[in-house]
Design goal:
By secondary structure, the chain is mostly beta strands. It is built from five helices and 32 strands.
């Protein structure tokens, strides 16, 4: 029975996670990149279009993006020394940046510069063997996706020395950060939000430091998933409003030297199976941990996933961990995901991701949805 529900929930998660409607302002005409000297002797390549940005990619340089939006989806896929295009699924392509030591990509101006793709199966930016990599003042994610999403936001592999500063990584994007064999990463004053599988996944990494950052409103499966990772620390971070089925923090190790340290900040209003697994592998110091689903009383937990008829018609459904969307509630109550919009209309004060122990009013005989779901 549970395996059947798990397969259905995975399918629903893929469908509802990535309906994003967005617009892209027209890009200015392409013009040659300019360069000027920087104190550390790296040239600063000033770019203003997506085409210029990709052409400027290389080692030992700073690429400074003028304010605006850079859509990488419709670029001409040229063969460049440090850029590779690999097919993801269904004719969509991942942009891979390779072998670029001391590369910095930064947005100019006060507001983050927006790097976006419209390809749901591809990740926004992929980095391989890019030691001393810096990303700053950027907003990255998927836009205008009409279908499934399997691509992440920022993927980094085989890299030592990473700084991500003042960046927003948003969903759609199944994972905000996907890290493999990364060492000495600092994620500072940045945000991961609204991702649809995990907040982040890290494999075989060492010395990951998350500082003064926010992780919020991510849904579906897991939160922070660390596999064979050492020296992971969170300092003055906010983890709020996420709704996942698995533990919020998870590691495959149980040795003391692999313990995750969370100091200061807050872990609030999250829905998850439990705080951490193994439970003793997360050490919390001086952090505000409250109003999370695993902290509810036994009486409250007993009401989860119950359906109760109402005297005036309709019924209420009490959500439990893992049910974070109106589509999931629609299927559980009516046997079909086609009543999502009716449920949203009937519960105007409730927003996704829906937290555990939320009472959802479910009207009798609701109409079917009209038009595509929204993400």
């Amino acid at each position: 029975m549970w395996r059947g529900w798990a397969k259905w929930l995975a399918a629903v998660g893929a469908v509802v996670g990535c309906w994003y409607i967005g617009t892209s302002p027209a890009q200015p005409e392409s013009r040659p990149a300019t360069a000027k000297a920087e104190k550390d002797a790296r040239p600063v390549m000033a770019v203003a279009t997506a085409e210029e940005f990709v052409k400027a990619i290389g080692p030992d340089r700073i690429i400074e993006l003028a304010p605006g939006q850079y859509n990488l989806t419709k670029l001409t896929r040229r063969k460049l020394d440090h850029v590779r295009w690999t097919e993801a699924i269904d004719g969509e392509y991942d942009l891979h940046i390779r072998d670029c030591p001391r590369l910095e990509i930064r947005g100019a101006g006060k507001e983050p510069v927006h790097i976006v793709i419209n390809a749901g199966y591809a990740s926004v930016l992929n980095f391989h063997n890019c030691p001393s990599l810096t990303l700053s003042n950027l907003e990255l994610g998927h836009e205008k996706i009409l279908g499934y999403c399997t691509g992440g936001v920022v993927v980094i592999e085989g890299t030592t020395g990473v700084m991500i500063d003042r960046c927003l990584l948003y969903g759609c994007g199944i994972e905000g950060l996907t890290l493999t064999k990364v060492k000495d990463l600092t994620f500072r004053d940045s945000t991961v939000e609204k991702c649809t599988n995990n907040i982040l996944v890290a494999r075989d990494c060492d010395k990951l430091a998350f500082e003064r950052s926010v992780f919020r409103r991510c849904t579906q499966y897991g939160g922070f998933d660390f596999v064979d990772c050492m020296a992971v620390t969170f300092t003055d971070c906010q983890v709020e409003g996420n709704a996942v089925r698995e533990p919020l923090f998870k590691t495959n190790l149980n040795a003391d030297e692999a313990r995750i340290i969370f100091t200061g900040g807050a872990i609030r209003r999250n829905t998850a199976k439990e705080l951490a697994s193994p439970a003793n592998m997360l050490t919390i110091k001086d952090a505000d941990v409250k109003d999370n689903s695993w902290q509810a009383t036994e009486e409250v937990r007993n009401f989860r996933s119950t359906i109760s008829p109402l005297p005036g018609g309709g019924r209420t459904y009490i959500t439990g961990p893992g049910v974070s969307s109106f589509s999931e509630v629609s299927h559980l109550v009516y046997g079909s995901i086609e009543h999502r919009q009716a449920l949203e209309k009937a519960n105007p004060k409730i927003t996704e991701p829906i937290q555990a122990d939320t009472s959802i009013f479910c009207p009798d005989n609701p109409p079917k949805d009209v038009g595509p779901e929204k993400g």
